[in-house]
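quick one before i forget lol
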Amino acid sequence: MLEHLGCRVLEARSAAEAEALDLRGVSVAIVDRGLPDDDGLQLARRLQSKWSIPVAVMSGGPVEPDAELPWLEKPFGLDRLRALALQVLGRSENAPDCS
């Protein structure tokens, strides 16, 4: 979805895949809470700590919002995803892209 906003997207289908990625230069990580091999909230915290990048969490189930991390409840549309990415990046809605 973020490709439509001019973003370069790296995808990982598991926590193990995500932790194997080189995230240097990544602007933001959006992590699914329901990963097959780990708790996405814990992964989000590890990625934030290791790479010093802004992180948000998305979930299709009931979520207790984490005071430290913004989150997005599924299902969601492109507008909500864009707003979350911009929020996490600390940018305004008028930003030309999310890179």
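fyi Residues 28-60+72-92 form a domain with the Rossmann fold fold (CATH 3.40.50.2300).
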